[in-house]
Amino acid sequence: MTRGCINKCSFCAVPKLEPTYCNYIGIRSKIKKVEECFGMKKDLLLMDNNVFASEYFDEIINEIKESGFGKGATYIPTNQYDLAYRNLCKGFKLGGGNSKSVYNDRAYFKKLIKIYDEITEKLKDEEKGIFFSKREELGLLYFETATKDNVIAFHETAKKLYDKLFKQNERVRFIDFNQGLDARLVNNKKMEKISEIAIRPLRIAFDHWKMKDIYEQAVRTAAKYGIRDLSNYLLYNFKDHPNELYKRMRLNVELCEELNIAIYSFPMKYHPIDDPDYFRNRDFIGQPYWNRKFVRAIQAILNATHGKIGRGSNFFEAAFGKDIEEFNKILWMPEALIIQRYKYDIEKRAEYYGNKPSPYDGVDDITS
């Protein structure tokens, strides 16, 4: 993976937090150490800001594949009882060689008590009573009263039941470059290479409308190489116009329908991190196009959509309007009306819109 970014975008925190771009950081040994200490993990989340910019891009993808996250990757979860019991009794080494073992008794007492509870829930009445009584006798009903000696004394009973009741089945796993990829650096070779790993979702930055053609081509290239699940953060409240946010969201919905893919968009409000006037508040308003009413309106809409916009034009149009004109009407709506959209959509539509078309016409079946 990489750290930092080659770009110095004025709205981005990365140049301030990670000013120097490091184009390769090995992760194989770190993944191995995590698995040794804490067991196999389902997904790999990389806080990487611009992996496409790295001259070691192919090597990074190969390392990810070798670490168990190639396309179609599966794994069998580590036995959670064995892991908790081992780490409680023997600790785990975060370093190598002669490093001291680390113990976290409180955490693993909690984990084991939770496992005992899960075992109890699966037992039949008679077995449940015997198991519960034994736990009570050893003080293993609550983590506050648990001791290592009593956990060890209870080990054979608990392990036998856990192995019998909880089967470890094969599961799929995914990787996520969580900070997004630079659409300007996308080409066929890189997209074909990244399609070799179990990436889901593929996040492609779409920070402003001027990137429209480049972004759209990047999405089409991803679809070309079989990447069906995508996502992005949509910056707003910077120097953009609210209408540009609408157009970016609309484009994603249209690309979903045309290419039969899923793009989940997360509008993300800009807030400066280097201006003392905004260190203790969230009051920044992007000039000259944004105002407090518009920002609150977007947040009210996102409250109803759980912060994201997925595929489906009916859902999108019900939330944001059929076109920019309707979107602007929604921006000026009272906040309570926006939040209680579905209620007022049915009861107050005629009163609010009169004889004019409503952005919700034809979606009653969805919202009722």
What does this structure look like?
Strands 5-6-7 form a three-stranded parallel sheet, with helices on one face. It has a two-stranded parallel ribbon with strand order 1-4. The protein has a two-stranded antiparallel sheet with strand order 2-3. It is mainly alpha-helical and 368 residues long. The protein has three domains: 14-72, no CATH class; 80-165, no CATH class; 201-367, no CATH class. Strand 5 (202-203), helix 9 (212-224) and strand 6 (229-236) form a beta-alpha-beta unit. The mean pLDDT is 91. Helix 4 (80-90) packs antiparallel against helix 5 (105-122), helix 5 crosses helix 7 (148-165) and helix 9 (212-224) runs parallel beside helix 10. The two termini are 47 Å apart. It has helices at residues 14-17, 28-38, 57-69, 80-90, 105-122, 125-138, 148-165, 188-194, 212-224, 242-259, 292-304, 313-320, 324-331, 335-339, 341-347, 349-353, 364-367; strands at residues 44-46, 74-75, 171-172, 175-177, 202-203, 229-236, 262-269.
Count of structural domains:
3
Roughly how many Å is the radius of gyration?
Answer: 26 Å
User: Unreliable runs, pLDDT <50, ≥5 residues?
Assistant: none
Tally the helices: 17
Q: What is the element string, with H for helices and E for strands?
A: HHEHEHHHHEEHEHEHEHHHHHHH
Q: Structural class, from helix and strand content?
A: mainly alpha
Number of strands: 7
| Percent helix range | 40-55%
Task: Describe the strand arrangement of the main beta sheet, using strand numbers.
Answer: 5-6-7
